[in-house]
Amino acid sequence: MSENTDPLPDWAPLIRGLHARFRTRDFAAGLELVTAFAAEAEAADHHPDLTLRYGTVDVLLYSHDVGGVTDRDHRLAARFSEIARDRSISASPGEPSVLELGLDTPDAAEIAPFWSAILGAEIHDDQGDLEIRAHGADAILWFQHTEPHETPRQRFHLDVWVDPRAAGDRIAAALAAGGRLVSDERAPSFWVLADTQGNHACICTVAGRP
Length: 210
Fold this sequence. Notes:
This protein folds into two domains: 12-91, Transcriptional coactivator/pterin dehydratase (Gyrase A, domain 2); 99-204, Roll (2,3-Dihydroxybiphenyl 1,2-Dioxygenase, domain 1), CATH 3.10.180. It has helices at residues 27-44, 71-86, 108-119, 167-176, and strands spanning 12-14, 17-23, 49-53, 56-61, 90-91, 97-105, 122-126, 129-134, 138-145, 156-162, 180-183, 190-194, 200-204. It is globular, with a radius of gyration of 19 Å. The protein is built from four helices and 13 strands.
């Protein structure tokens, strides 16, 4: 068996950030872990998003000032993993995922303000592509350009971002549930699948992207 050389085995590289889920014994253990993470983040002057639930602590590391993952995120991720290991708390890197909604439209600028108002989130211009984002990091809704066309039966599709290591299992589960593979032409960046009624969804990863 080859040695695992992944420098951050606890962390899933998903869109716009490093995600981790730490499995805690109970709420008190989770709160103590969050407190330790917060102290480390303050010392590093780099602040993650932390979500505390009974039995889990979810972490998102992302450098908002540059719009992506930096060495600061990698260093803090490594320290967080050390803090968790010191407390015998394990991570579940295959569990975190990011869900985006994509809306096909020939003119995103025309409808983006409506969706911004409806969702109570901000419009961001990502190199010419408009997105509706919460907290400046996670896209709630993004607009996919299409040529003008009659209203199709499906305007929305789901983009589900997963750890590249978990993509195969996620696809296999979808196929086992009656789905079909529409295209793997752009794998491992994304796979297009459809349910039994022809509605499409994509399993997406950061692999194979610039």
